[in-house]
Design brief:
Blueprint: H1 4-7, H2 12-21, H3 26-45, H4 58-66, H5 70-89, H6 91-101, H7 103-129, H8 132-136, H9 143-147, H10 153-161, H11 171-180, E1 193-205, E2 208-221, E3 225-229, H12 236-243, E4 250-255, E5 258-259, H13 264-267, E6 271-274, H14 286-297, H15 304-317, H16 333-345, E7 351-355, H17 363-378, E8 382-386, E9 399-405, E10 411-418, H18 419-426, H19 431-438, H20 449-461
Parallel strand pairs: 3-8, 3-9, 6-7, 7-8
Antiparallel strand pairs: 1-2, 1-4, 4-5, 9-10
Helix pairs in contact: 3-10, 4-5, 5-7, 6-7, 14-15, 14-16
């Protein structure tokens, strides 16, 4: 390979060879052409247009789709694209650095940057190809051929041209199958409670539409305390943001019969959201923290005396009155959690959402905190909680929502109902085992998300 950084010259023919084949040598071009031919046939077997194999970077992304590793493929193809672009523009920053710090230092810096990029690329490439043996039903030892330099064309040709090797599913067929799993219906609107009819929550990512959530329909009566379960990336936070109006989805969200989206400004005081991270100034006292929060959480025009009365009430509810003059930084972990909750409870919301409120708390302190949340729900509020240790307080919940990633990495509703019915539905005796059942196998789960999403859809249609 020509060292353009050192020579300061640019050979357009050489660059084209590097762009499409990754090498300038004749042998390398032949091997890479064979690899492209193998990918062409593999793509066709997976229901993808074969000519994608000829397009640099895009071929890497399409391979990730065949392997069921599309998110990793997006990152990897971008890294490959950046590496190729660097071959063109790299000479400019190199020339500037060479003048400032000398040839040797500039060369070392560029070697470190390119080396780091290569390591990150390798990590994502390994993540992609580890999905191929499962899709093709072969042994994992095939991965050594996909990892070996210069001979990746061998497995590509064998899997592509040999009829014996067929993928377990086609990319487009899988999408169609997942479409069939959609629950075409809507939850009953409650006059007193939360009703969510979410059709879709999507974003534009990597030049295409990426669906984060879809087909979530449920109604939660007032006075219920609900557990929100789901593995990493299942869409729990995205769902909560859609419910509270922070990130609007293609959905209808009604709280006590009022539309959260169209009446958002009027209803923002009806929802309290406690994030996992504590955002309080350590040098302020408990009382001053709550008084400042009351100015933001309570409607404008509320008299100062009324705000102070509400602050006193909330401190009494959460047991903070004895430490009202203490600095926040001097509070215990449990007291800080209760203060975070108190801030959101000032507006007396009808819907109370908490993201891991027990994070960092021991069993006794967590129990005390969730018992307090149970009391809040018993006053007619709706309390929705995310926690990674649900089984130690599961007796305090009424219902559970289980979100799961389907094969398209979209968050779907796998269950909503009572705790005991959830255990029967999943055939598991704990919430942690339920989460494990819907997690992907590469995440340490059982990989049954599609099965339970479809099963739940059938239950709803019955």
């Amino acid at each position: 390979m020509k060292d353009w950084y050192l020579t300061g010259t640019f050979d357009i023919i050489a660059f084209i060879k590097l762009l499409f084949w990754g090498t300038e040598s004749l042998t390398g071009i032949i091997f890479q052409s064979l690899y492209m031919a193998g990918l062409w046939k593999m793509f066709q077997k997976s229901g993808i247009k074969g000519w994608w194999a000829l397009i640099p970077c895009a071929s890497d992304y399409q391979l990730s789709r065949c392997a069921g590793r599309e998110p990793e493929g997006r990152v990897y193809s971008v890294l490959v694209f950046l590496q190729k672009i660097w071959l063109v523009v790299g000479i400019v920053p190199y020339t500037i650095l060479r003048r400032w710090i000398g040839n040797d230092s500039a060369a070392i810096m560029f070697d470190v940057l390119l080396g780091t990029l290569a390591i990150v690329q390798l990590i994502y490439y390994i993540r992609i190809i580890t999905g191929l043996p499962q899709v093709y039903g072969v042994r994992k030892r095939w991965l050594w051929l996909w990892l070996a330099p210069y001979i990746t064309f061998i497995p590509a040709l064998i899997w592509g041209f040999n009829k014996r090797y067929q993928p377990a599913w086609k990319v487009e067929d899988m999408k169609a199958e997942l479409e069939k799993m959609a629950f075409q219906g809507s939850a009953t609107v409650l006059d007193e409670g939360l009703t969510v009819n979410l059709t879709e929550r999507s974003v534009r990512e990597f030049f295409q539409k990426k669906t984060l959530l879809r087909d979530i329909h449920l109604s939660i009566p007032s006075g219920h305390m609900v557990l929100l379960l789901g593995g990493s990336g299942a869409g729990k936070t995205t769902f909560l943001n859609a419910v509270n109006g922070y990130e609007k989805a293609k959905a209808e969200v009604l709280l006590n019969g009022r539309n959260m989206y169209s009446d958002y400004k009027k209803m923002q005081y009806e929802v309290g959201f406690v994030p996992q991270q504590e955002m309080m100034r350590g040098k302020d006292t408990v009382l001053s923290t709550l008084l400042d929060a009351a100015k933001l959480r309570l409607p404008k025009g509320v008299p100062a005396a009324t705000r102070r009365k509400r602050v006193d009430e909330v401190m009494e509810i959460f047991g903070l009155t004895p430490v009202k003059n203490n600095l926040v930084e001097k509070l215990s972990g449990g007291q800080k959690k209760r203060l975070s909750i108190s801030i959101e409870f000032l507006s007396n919301p009808s819907l109370f959402i908490l993201d891991e409120p027990d994070s960092g708390l021991d069993g006794v302190m967590a129990r005390e905190l969730f018992t307090q949340l149970r009391r809040i729900a018993d006053t007619g509020k709706i309390v929705i909680v995310i926690t990674h240790t649900p089984d130690r307080v599961i007796d305090l919940f009424d219902d559970v929502i289980v979100l799961a990633k389907d094969s398209a990495r979209t968050g779907r509703l796998a269950w909503y109902g009572s705790i005991e019915d959830a255990k029967k539905f999943f055939g598991r005796d704990s919430m942690e085992k339920i989460v494990k059942s819907v997690n992907r196998k590469e995440e340490g789960g059982d990989g049954l998300a599609d099965d339970f999403v479809m099963k739940y859809g059938e239950v709803q249609h019955a």
